[in-house]
Amino acid sequence: MGNAPALFIRLLAAVLAILAVACGGPQEPVVAPAAGATPSGGPTPFFWEPAAADGEPPASSVDLDEIRPGGPPPDGIPPIDEPRFETVADAELADREPVMVVERDGETHVYPLAILTFHEIINDVIAGQPTLVTYCPLCNSALAFDPVVDGRVLDFGTSGRLWRSNLVMYDRQTQTLWSQFVGEAIVGELLGTELDRLPSAIVAWADARKARPNARVLSRDTGHERPYGSNPYVGYDTAEAPFLFDGDTGGPLEQIERVVAVGEDDPVAVPLTALEEQRVVPIKADGRELVVFWTPGTASALDTAALADGADVGASGVFEPVVDGQRLTFATAGEQHFADRQTGSHWTVLGEAVRGPLAGQRLHRVLHDDTFWFVQYAFRPETRIVR
Predict the structure, then answer these.
(1) Do 114 and 157 fall within a single domain?
(2) How many helices and strands (H and E) does the chain possess?
(3) Helix, coil or strand: residue 199
(4) Domain boundary among 185, 218, 251
(5) Segment 40-66, tens digit of pLDDT
(6) Which one of 99, 282, 319, 373 is least enclosed by Cβ atoms within 10 Å?
(7) Residues 12 and 158 occupy one common structural domain
(8) How far apart are CA 375 and CA 387, in angstroms?
(9) Residue 277 has what pLDDT?
């Protein structure tokens, strides 16, 4: 850790760089919105401070001193409130480019990380249902939520703050602050409220294109001028420490080490190194027998200057290995498929059988995180490591 100051300066420069492009330079300066003016038409977001207007601290479940300025002001990294989409045939993406896939009631939306990196939040609607899509580059956490709370649809912005190096969101209706990694309100009126998490996956564009030819793909026509496809966080994958994180991360893994994590009451993390070697890893989490799939071919969004050229970190999926009451066990079948020993059917990293007696069947997807060890440990320190 002797070069930690240099790493901090490098990571700070990365965040300032993304702020510079997010603000659009001289042509698009950051200014406080006029009263009542937000893209959603909701109340003006306040520039949150630890003390409320009356001098009393706001209701919170965390130490307010741990919620730290990340560089940009509120919505300095602007969320996308009116996303535009294109067809799979029209989307021009590199095969290895990482994309986030979210499905609801048979409708699939695909979000390139090349765009999410510069916006972090998308207030979307999938199959007629409000859907919150989020990405925190500092944690590589791409998570989707149902933003309906007590019958009210909330829409979200970026607060400009970090908690444990993780994106802190705010909702425009109450200006409550939310932790992205756990989807929980941590400061403000809705304190303690948890958003319902939705299944999602980060996979290569080539895999998403093949599996979901009728998907809607987020367009770069966002209404903002950004260098989509570039990476403001060059080399973050190999940093020795995360940005603005002082916590203890214990255990045998490095802070910036990729893991696939699953479970809440009995969380488990499988290091990327183990997945690269084994490709299929059976685990038990929250009392359930599960299987983790991993395939190569997906670029890291946090490595090289050109996002699509990033190191191969692959794609993962976590599933209940049961179809029609029959428990399946799996082995690799080539570079991109897995075969169950019971029927010989071939399955993809999205948990779909594409060949054999079970073709067309899907495994039940389990919520999981493709993230770094430091954030998994910070939020779930009881996590067991499985290799």
Answers:
(1) yes
(2) 5, 30
(3) coil
(4) 218
(5) 444 444 445 555 556 677 889 999 889
(6) 282
(7) yes
(8) 19
(9) 97
224 lies in some domain: no
| Domain-located, residue 339 | yes
Total domains in the chain come to: 2
Token pair of 112 as six digits: 């390139």
As a whole number of angstroms, the longest Cα–Cα distance in the chain is: 67
What's the confidence (pLDDT) of residue 197?
Answer: 98
| pLDDT for position 21 | 46
Instruction: Print the domain residue range for 95.
Output: 6-18+58-218
d(CA 218, CA 2): 42
Q: Is there a single domain that holds both residue 10 and residue 151?
A: yes
Model pLDDT for residues 286-341, shown as the tens digit of each residue: 999 999 999 999 999 999 999 999 999 999 999 999 999 999 999 999 999 999 99
Find the mean pLDDT for residues 246-266. 89
Tell me the β-bridge partners of 148.
Answer: 153
- Same-domain check for residues 72 and 197: yes
**Cα–Cα distance, 303 to 308 (Å, whole number):** 9
CA angle 72, 76, 79 (to 5 degrees): 130
Strand order in the sheet with 280-285: 280-285, 288-295, 315-320, 364-365
Q: How confident is the model at residue 35 (pLDDT cuts 50, 70, 90)?
A: very low
- The verdict on 334 and 257 lying in the same domain is yes
Based on the domain organization, do 158 and 190 belong to the same domain?
Answer: yes
Higher pLDDT, 46 or 201: 201
Query: Is pLDDT of 247 > 60?
Result: yes
**261 shares its domain with 135:** no
Mean pLDDT of 256-270: 97
CATH at 297: 2.102.10
198/107 Cα distance (integer angstroms): 13
Pair 60, 191: CB distance under 8 Å: yes
In a domain, 319, yes or no: yes
Rg (CA), the chain: 20
Question: Does position 119 have pLDDT exceeding 70, yes or no?
Answer: yes
| 3 state DSSP class of 26 | helix
d(CA 291, CA 282): 4
Q: Domain boundary residue among 218, 251, 271? A: 218
Question: pTM score, two decimals?
Answer: 0.89
Size of the chain in residues: 387
